[in-house]
């Protein structure tokens, strides 16, 4: 790329070193700055001599495109789709097979790069939702947002998603897609790299003056925008970790399901996140920054950032009705109804068998009498 200093050389390793310098410089500047913009990052790199001065529009757009891609890797909120749109636009990879939900309303963005990063990213959608935010204009979804207040791992888990809801579970590389639900294809999207959440959470927790890069995409506390503040970004990271326990770790059948999903993920074992295996596949998982497992989670307290997505999943699962005897046996979401139903079935079957046996005995007695 022509925007990098000393670009024309034959040694590929030197190009890698140049890129790594830029990569690290962007991260350091983002961690130490508040409400920065892409243009501010460009100016910073030029001042440090890591980029050529931007004398023409082509070089300016190349520099912005490079920084846009790097910020995507460092925040894991999106994956830049370089070379897929005009230079004045920015595009991201479609990880949801055409679905447009809360996170990505559009895959292309023409927002001015001089705007703060959080305002620029809003051109794609709500990649970082604020706490206890519904965001839907649908009366039914608004009602559900107030109605559904708790979730139980015994009734709301990945195994129930697949066995009762017939949902598909798809691992994705972008954090902003985590727990999005495509009701057309019944697909639940799950972020595959919890280690990123843990590392970003710990960086921000240990040193308030040295934040993670994803916190640089937060809105100021006094902003009127519907976007996550730094505290809300921290909540998103923690809740994402906790959601793996809710969906997989606290249910035996879901832990077994996770192991089969990993084999079918298409990712080589050496490239899989080992924390994902530990947090989803283990009955007990002690991780710093992660609250203890609970039998019941209160959504507005335990999942204020991911609340609307969990409620949407809860709605879809509640609307799913068992269609076979096997599914009826598995469906224990309402334990009182489940016990009543099977008690009626069992006692009814026993009554029928006793009645049938009585008829047989009467026939035998009549035959013996003759």
Keywords:
49% helix; 3-stranded mixed beta sheet; 14 helices; mainly alpha; single chain; two-stranded antiparallel ribbon; 370 residues
Q: Separation of termini?
A: 105 Å
The number of helical runs is 14
Radius of gyration: 27 Å
Tell me the β content.
5-15%
How would you sum up the major sheet? 3 strands, mixed
**Mean pLDDT metric:** 85
Q: Pick out the low-confidence regions.
A: 4-11
Structural class call reads mainly alpha
* Form type: elongated
Q: What's the β-strand tally?
A: 7
SSE order in H/E notation?
Answer: HHHEEHHEHEEEHHHHEHHHH
Strand order of the largest sheet: 4-6-5
Helix content: 40-55%
Assembly type of the chains comes to: single chain
Describe what this molecule looks like in 3D.
With 370 residues, this protein is mainly alpha-helical. Helix content is 49%, strand content 5%. It contains 14 helices and 7 strands. The strands form 3 sheets. It has a 3-stranded mixed sheet with strand order 4-6-5. Helix 7 runs antiparallel to helix 8 (230-249) and helix 8 crosses helix 10. The model is unreliable at 4-11 (pLDDT under 50).
